[in-house]
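The data layer described in this paper is built around a simple, fixed record for each protein. We quote a single record here, exactly as it is kept in our systems:
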Amino acid sequence: MLIYRERIEELSYNTRSIITKTDISCALILLKKRHRLSISCIDDIISFLRTLNVPNVPSNWYHLKKNLIATHIPPTQTFICPNCQETSTSSAECSQCSNHFNDTIKPNSILSFSIRNQIERILHYNRDVFRTHRSQAISMKDICDGAIHQKLQNEIQEPFLTLTLNVDGIQPRKGSQQAIWPILIIINEIPLKKRFAIENIILAGVWPGPSKPSRAEMSLFFRPLVDELLTLEQGVTFSLYDDDDDDIFVTARVFLIGACCDKPAQSLLQFLPEPTAEHGCGRCEVSGISFLLRK
């Protein structure tokens, strides 16, 4: 919602901007939320605006919502065949082994979202991320002061962005046996106060459950993400608009430099044993000692 509010404020100061149907739809959504208006009230406001011949006004509340939903790029859904444990593009038959799915053999699915498109959307409202190279930090106050980020600064001359990944399982409701596993990404160059705002979070993928993915399924879950990250590392062109409605094109490379996960999620990502196992450490090969044996 903050993105929409900033866009509306931008339009109020720039009379040359063309107010689109999406802009009006966002303004009406904000108006409804701020004043707790009913849908009937929004329909009356829409009718009033259309009576005044205001251009680009949606015809009603239904078309308003449909217009906003149409602005989002739908995810790519793939299915995991329980027979060959490979991904399939069809929910009826495995595209790898031709195994047929039915009510007793239901494949798990994966939802993948475009990272590039989400970065481009975030850059519309965070232009300062492409500032000049930072100076060498005396003390580490942020991930951008770390050795990996400093190394990228020294080796790469063109603009670049860095990412941090998080993946974890959440329960839809308390006590539920079901679990949803989202892949979330943030841009490290965004100022810390705005970095974790909901409008700056990238949703790279969702494992919709119904249970925790296995290590093999997690590997398939991350395959589209890894492929896109490899492409982003080579450099992509992002299209940004300025105050004069002219497109600005910025070519930048994007690197994933870190992941922040708890131990169970780390074991899935790195194909490690469970954290409570004898060799459950992701950094060394020292055998663990059971707490019960220690007593």
User: Anything to note?
Assistant: Strands lie at 76-80, 87-88, 108-112, 160-167, 181-187, 202-207, 236-241, 247-259. The chain has a mean pLDDT of 81. The first strand starts at residue 76 and ends at 80. DSSP finds ten helices and eight strands in the chain.
